[in-house]
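Hey, resending since the last one bounced:
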Amino acid sequence: MGIERRPSHTSLQADYMLLVFAFFFSFFYRVSASVVLPGLGAEWGLSASSIGFVSGLYFWVYSLSQPFAGLLNDRFGPTLVAAVGLAVAAIGAVSFATASSVIGLAAGRLLTGVGLASILSGTVAFQKAAFQPDRYAFFSGIVYFIGNLGAVASVAPLGAALDLWGRRGVFLVLTALTVVLGLALLARRRRDPVVAGLGIAGASQRSTGGAVAPGLTAQLVVAVRTIVGTPQLAAMAVLWLVSYGALMTLQGLWGVEWCQTAYNATASTSRIWATMVSVGVMAGNVIGSRTAPSAGRRGFAITVASIAGAGAWALLWSSMSLRAPIWFTGGACALVGAASGACYVHLTAGVNDLSRKGQGGAVFGTINMMPSLGVIIGQWGAGAVIDRGSGLVGAAGRAYTPAAFTTAFGVILAVILASQFLLVRIKGFEEGRPDGAGAQPGR
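The structure tokens again:
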């Protein structure tokens, strides 16, 4: 059983890139709602809060699956778990492609959410097991860069494809690509370094057996205790909830509509400028990975990126509210994305810094539940505020107003600014590391 020889570095990189491309699809599917759902909402007479709820179903199941996804990755390996998950996501894509009612759309969002829940935590668990620790932030930057390339593809390019071939045709092609990627991962599952004893985490689990591989429930309890008992991890979880919830409310649902409403712009023009958020995130991923500090300076890097993000959000809200030139607002979108992208690279590396060996997937999966909860709250809450300020929508005559968007995103901005006070807890990573390099959690 298992594999005795470690695969070549090139082979591990190839397997890793398959997981990274799976994360591309994860981002593509989650952000595609910003192009598909508002238009269907107008066609079918759905309120803004209903659109937010349907979009948020992806994140409900994604969020609730995170702790278990991380544990499954640690136990069975990211390549096998991702392959099964992509098959489930493909079924969801078929439902979304052929839906003629809200139920079909909802089922599609639910299935894609649960199917893709394991991808990010599995990818970071793979890179932790396969590559040198000092390259962790670099590889995290690659993951987020490629993932956000999926977000770029799911706005303007997806909108153009939908205009040409329609929702059914486009999403059935995406289904086929998802299945092919899943089969490729399934074929390479036996040399997964997380479970085959080929890396730090895998070797630890194989050498000590059940002593470091307790039941899933026990692992989840340990992960939660680690997060609650480590001040830095707890603070990072809340910061991630707020920041990512805000970003996906803009990028993943309401950015295009906000731009159309504020500037009376066409859908294609609004998609291009809204895409600047994703372009900015990609730039931030590169910046974050290239400027990643040592663990002792991780808190400083997170603090700088988080404060920069809050300032960029204030600039975006002001420019959109005052109807500054659209190119200026597009630049503000890019700044929001860049600061967020850099911050997420540092946050991911920070979780790795503070996770015990062999528990990276479980801890990251549990923390990764928080950003998804932020998206659920942000997308639905923004939709509810937009409804209250916009009057009639959908088949009755869509009437989103600039003031409604200003209010909704003004609330989001206030929450972002308030969350910056948590940065006082983001310090001392070397002292807080619980795996033997420093103090134990809770000190």
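Residues 231-263 form the longest helix (33 residues).

Sorry for the duplicate.
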